[in-house]
Write a structure and sequence with these properties.
This protein is an all-alpha fold and 98 residues long. Helices cover 62% and strands 0% of the residues. It has 2 helices and no strands. Helix 1 crosses helix 2. It is elongated and about 65 Å long.
Amino acid sequence: MSFLGFGRPQPSSEEKIAAVQAEMKLMTQMHDRLTKACAKKCVPNDYRESELNKGESVCLDRCAAKFFDVHMKVSEQLQQEMQQKGVGGGSGGFGFGG
């Protein structure tokens, strides 16, 4: 129970586990999208070397940075819209941000 009975009731252990599982699923999906998008853009299909060259590494680094930057901006925008509609919000998108 919350302080003096005011506020939202505390979630049960099952609800906490379900929330963590849902967040892990979303994180996994985001990682898959990031990997596919950046690999398609930065790594050629015809491998000639066993390791990434400098250009591929830089491309992947920039691609991942842009992916997370856009993700954070979209999450912040959605959070603002939810707050304006009066829906309670949590942390930043998928555990990032504040």
